[in-house]
Each structure stands twice: as structure tokens, then as C-alpha cells.
């Protein structure tokens, strides 16, 4: 058992190093080259992850959400959070936290993605959609997911990863174990293993650049 844990620790350290090196010196910009670089960095970090077809699909969309989390901080738009809304197995919208850019405390990644998805589909219910979030949604975002009737939520990092760099601890305490959380009419899945490590690493990699909400 100790040997297995040691192997896992080495893998996690390697994945952290991949992300660290890949994102060093990335500057915000609109160019295609930068977008390709960001995408490749996340893809490289996920290389070697063994999974089935269903998990591979989830990983693909979760990687996009993680990519958005990095992009938002690099551009100065907001905190290290990303979200992707998927419709008919295709990315409908891909967004990140826009709190600073919009001067709007409600412009979290998930809320922004839901707003854009509703505009794209010209409807207020997203029952045929799934949402992938780089981090566990806060109570506000979870409420928006519930109200939009999204059928499935997949998230990467646990809220504790955000709390560790200064975000409010109510994120994890407000909903877990409550009747509202348990009775929500959507499937909720949290990534585990290497996928969770990569998502949680976003906070360590960006904490020096993002100061808002930190104590």
C-alpha cells in the first residue's frame, strides 16, 4: 500500500510540474497561437491518464474548463475558475470568471456560462445540457445550475482547493449535505485521481497573480 501511494505521489508531482512549466511566462492575448499553447499545456498535463470512454468524454470537457480557469487569470478577468456548457456532445459555450472585467460579483464562471448558453439557445431552460466546472460550484452557481434545469454537473477541484488560497469557506459548507443539494434534479460527478490533481493545481499555479478575496 505504501509503495502504491509513493507511485501516486510521484505521478502527482510530475503532473504539477508539467502544468507549472507549461504556463510559465504565458501572457494574456487574443492570438490563435496563445490559445493553442494553453490547450496543449492542459492536454500535456492529462497525458497518461487511463480512463474508459465515458470518463474520456468527461475529461475532454473538463480540460476545457480548466483551460478557461487559467485563461481568466492570465487576462485579468477574474478568479481561477472556468466552466463549459455542453449540448449534444458539443461545447456550446466556454467561459471563465468575469468578476473583475465586468465589475460584477455574480459573474462567476458557471453563471456566465449559463447566461451565454441561454442566449445561444434562446431559452431559459437547459435541460438538454451538461455543465463542466473546474471547481466545485459555490451556492450561487449551484442555484443557477438548478434553476436552469441543467441535467448533469461534472466538477474538478473540491472547494477546499479554492479556500486554501483565500476564498470564503462558505463555498463548501453552505450546500453539502443539505436537502437542496441532495434533491437537486441533476447528476453530480466529481473528478478523481489525476483529473482532480490537475484541476486543483490551478489554484497553486495562479495564486501569485490573483489577489482578490485572499486574506
TrEMBL record:
CDD domains: nucleoside_deaminase. Pfam families: dCMP_cyt_deam_1. Keywords: Hydrolase, Metal-binding, Zinc. Gene3D superfamilies: Cytidine Deaminase, domain 2 (3.40.140.10). InterPro entries: APOBEC/CMP_deaminase_Zn-bd (IPR016192), CMP_dCMP_dom (IPR002125), Cytidine_deaminase-like (IPR016193). One of its GO terms (molecular function) is zinc ion binding. GO terms for biological process: purine nucleoside catabolic process. Residues 56-170 form the CMP/dCMP-type deaminase domain. Belongs to the cytidine and deoxycytidylate deaminase family. This is Uncharacterized protein LOC110764018. It comes from Prunus avium. The gene is LOC110764018.
Amino acid at each position: 500500500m505504501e509503495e502504491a501511494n509513493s507511485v501516486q505521489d510521484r505521478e502527482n508531482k510530475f503532473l504539477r510540474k508539467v502544468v507549472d512549466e507549461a504556463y510559465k511566462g504565458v501572457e494574456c492575448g487574443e492570438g490563435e497561437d496563445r490559445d493553442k499553447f494553453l490547450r496543449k499545456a492542459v492536454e500535456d498535463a492529462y497525458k497518461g491518464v487511463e480512463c474508459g470512454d465515458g470518463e474520456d468524454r468527461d475529461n475532454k470537457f473538463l480540460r476545457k474548463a480548466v483551460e478557461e480557469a487559467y485563461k481568466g487569470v492570465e487576462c485579468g478577468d477574474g478568479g481561477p475558475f472556468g466552466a463549459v456548457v455542453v449540448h449534444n456532445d458539443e461545447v456550446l459555450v466556454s467561459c471563465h470568471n468575469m468578476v473583475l472585467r465586468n465589475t460584477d460579483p455574480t459573474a462567476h464562471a458557471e453563471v456566465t456560462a449559463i447566461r451565454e448558453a441561454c442566449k445561444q439557445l434562446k431559452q431559459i431552460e437547459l435541460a438538454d445540457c451538461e455543465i463542466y466546472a473546474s471547481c466545485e460550484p459555490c451556492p450561487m452557481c449551484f442555484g443557477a445550475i438548478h434553476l436552469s434545469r441543467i441535467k448533469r454537473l461534472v466538477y474538478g477541484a473540491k472547494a477546499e482547493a479554492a479556500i486554501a488560497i483565500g476564498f470564503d469557506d462558505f463555498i463548501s459548507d453552505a450546500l453539502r449535505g443539505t436537502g437542496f443539494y441532495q434533491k437537486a434534479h441533476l447528476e453530480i460527478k466529481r473528478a478523481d485521481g489525476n483529473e482532480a490533481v490537475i484541476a486543483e493545481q490551478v489554484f497553486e499555479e495562479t495564486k501569485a497573480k490573483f489577489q482578490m478575496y485572499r486574506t
